[in-house]
Amino acid sequence: MESDNVDVSSEKGTERQGISMKIHRLSVDTATLAYAIFGSGKIDMVIEMGLGAVMGEWWNLARRLSAHHTILLYERAGYGSSSMSTLERTPENIARELYILMQQLGCDDQVTFLAHSQGGLYAQQFARLYPSFVRKLVLLDPLSPEDNRFRSELTASEFKKSGADKTAGLRINLWLSRLHMGWLVRKMMSAAPPFYYCNGFSEEQKEYILAAISKPQIYETALEEYQKAHDPEILKGLKGAEGFPQIPVVLITHDSKIEEKEIMDFGGASKEEAEIIEKMWQEIMCEYLTFSSQSTHLRATNSSHYIHLTDGELVYELLMKK
User: Fold this and answer.
1) Are 46 and 69 in contact (CB under 8 A)?
2) What is the DSSP code (8-state) at residue 270?
3) Where is 37: in which H helix or E strand?
């Protein structure tokens, strides 16, 4: 299979900022996936990012972890420097594309998955499909196969204020980017996550993220990923412990007080509504603890949802040893 490289270190200002990363692209038949390797030796950790996320969001933590691990950081099909896929964006198809990428990179030993948000659903799907290749899952505020409880159990008002439904924002950005108004998307998103939670991005990271989120394909893909990740038929095989390997699972969830404040500030919820929404969110995520007898639950006391950006030290300390 052919691959081509994008040398980020050649971009203006990279040396000044201390960022040096080479992005590779490799065909997995159904798509061409972009990836970067941090560290040396055999890959022993894979980062599975959240909905709509691209590699620029994770460079800093991946570089730091590379002192102890060899990290595969990649972009799912349709995101960043990766092409669109010919396959539907189901968890199974996404896991299979990653498996092919790992095989082509010679990754035949067990790896630890570090997965955030929707990436948590894909990491657990990978573990079910390829249990012999997974040593441990570290899940940061993972999307749960029980996420549809938000819609079915909250009132219509609570659900709207919860921020659980991502489709409206994605559709607006898709519409604007298709109208060649990516500049407006960039302007709006420069104050939104991940930027809202991190002041430590270099200019190169900022530009990489903003360039990616000004293109229609990222929203087309994210909308399909979101829909498939909430399809009851697709989710049947991802619920409960049956079929899940007995591997260590470390669940790290956000701080409730911080999250409740954000639900009130950004969703317009009352304190009582925010507490109801947050209680359900924690319950849903904690379903992952029932998957394995080797499960641990930690709370990120400085964080709402973007734990890898606001509680990076906690994640680093947990993963600094192989």
Assistant:
1) no
2) -
3) strand 32-38
CA distances from residue 89 to 76, 104, 293 in whole angstroms, order as listed: 10, 21, 30
Tell me the longest C-alpha to C-alpha distance in the chain.
55
Find out whether 76 and 82 touch, Cβ atoms under 8 Å: yes
- Which residues are CB-contacts of 70 (< 8 A; sequence separation ≥ 6)? 37, 38, 39, 40, 41, 42, 43, 44, 45
Is the backbone of residue 274 left (phi > 0), alpha (psi -120 to 50) or beta?
A: alpha
Distance (Å, rounded) from C-alpha 202 to C-alpha 199?
9
Distance CA 114, CA 237 (A): 21
Model confidence over 99-122: pLDDT tens digits?
Answer: 999 999 999 899 999 999 999 999
Tens digit of pLDDT for each residue in 28-65? Answer: 999 999 999 999 999 999 999 999 999 999 999 999 99
Query: What per-residue confidence (pLDDT) applies to 17?
Result: 38
| Cα–Cα distance for residue pair 134/131, rounded to 1 Å | 6
Reply yes or no on whether the pLDDT at 14 is more than 90: no
Calculate ∠ Cα 34-73-253, nearest 5°.
135
Mean pLDDT calculated for residue range 209-230:
97
